[in-house]
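Entry type: protein chain
Record version: 2
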Amino acid sequence: MRRIRLLLATTAILATTQAAELKVYLGTYTNQGSKGIYLARLDTKTGKLSAPELAAELPNPTFLAITPSSKYLFAAGEIGNYKGERTGAVSAFTIERATGKLTPINAVSSKGQGPCHVSTDRKGRFCFVANYGGGTVASYTIAKDGKLSDAVTFIQHEGKGPNPKRQERAHAHSINVSPDGRFAVAADLGIDELIVYAIDRKTGALPRHSSVKAAPGAGPRHFAFHPKRPFAYAINELNSTVTAYSWSKRSGTLTELKSVSTLPAGTTVTNYPAEVRVHPSGRFLYGSNRGHNSIALFSLDAAGIPTFVDTFPSGGKNPRNFNIDPSGRWLLSANQDTGAVVVYSIDRKSGRLAETGNKINLTGAVCIRFLGK
C-alpha cells in the first residue's frame, strides 16, 4: 500500500512539474543572425522564459503553425528561390513531445513570393499559407505522418488599393480557419479586402465564398476569431485601426461592426500594426504597434465591440508578433529589431499588462507559438 501511495504521489509531482512548463517555438529571420526555429520553455507559474535553443536549422522560418494534436509544426520559409522557382517554401516537422526536438519531414513550394503566414484547420488535415509578395494563398493536405502534399489550391488575388507604395497590387497577409473548420479567411493588405473561402473537407480546395471590403487604404493584415462568440477582428496595418466584425458561421459571411484606433488620441508617430489576438476569456483584445512600439489593449463588450483602453511598451522595437499562453496569464512579445522576447503578466480582471522582468534575446524573432499539452 505504501509503495502504491508513493507511486501516486510521485506521479502527481511529475504531472505538476510538467504542467508548470510550456514549450515555446520561435520563428526568426535568419538573415539577421539567427539560424532557424528556436525552442524555449515558459514557467507558467513564474513567467520565466528559458534561454532559446536551436530546434531546427532553416532559412527565414518567419511564421509557424502547430497542429491541434501537437504532433507536427509547419514553417513558412521566406526565401526568394525554391528549387529554381521564384517562390517561398512551407516546411513540415515532427515534434518530439518530450524534448521539443523538430525532425524534418518535407518541404513544398508556397506558390508565391514572401510567404508570411501559415495555419492549419482544427483537425490537422489541411495547411494554408498566405504569400505577401505574390499576393496568393495556397492550401495543402497533411498526411497522417505529417507530410505536406503539393498545393491543392493556388489562388492569385487581383486588384490594388489607394496607397501607391504599399497597395500597388494584391498582398495576401494572413489566412485563418474558422472555429468550425468550414471556412478560411484571407486578409489582403494590398486590396483592402477580407476574402472568405469555403474549405472542401475532402480535398482542402478553397472555392471563393464571400468577401468584405475594409476602409480604403486600411490595409488589413492579421485576423482573429473570438474564442467564444460569433465575432472576429482584423488589424489594419496602414491606418492603425482594428475592425470588429460579426461572423455568421451558418452563411460564412462577415459584417463590419466598428473600427477603433490602435493608438492613444493625438499620437502622430509613424506606425504599422502587426498582430491581433483575443484573450482566451473573450473579454479583451490586443494588437501590436510597430513604430509606437507598444501593445494596445481593448475591452470587448457583449456585442463584440472593442473600446480602446491603453497601450503598453512592447519591450523593444518592431513588435511584429506576440502571443498569449493558453491560461491567459502571460503575454509574450517578439520585438524583431531589438531581438527581445519579453514576458508580461496579464491582469485577468482588467486585461492590463505588467512587466515581469523576464525576457530572452533572440536575433530577428518574429513569431511565437505554444505547444499544447
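Comment: The chain has one helix and 28 strands.
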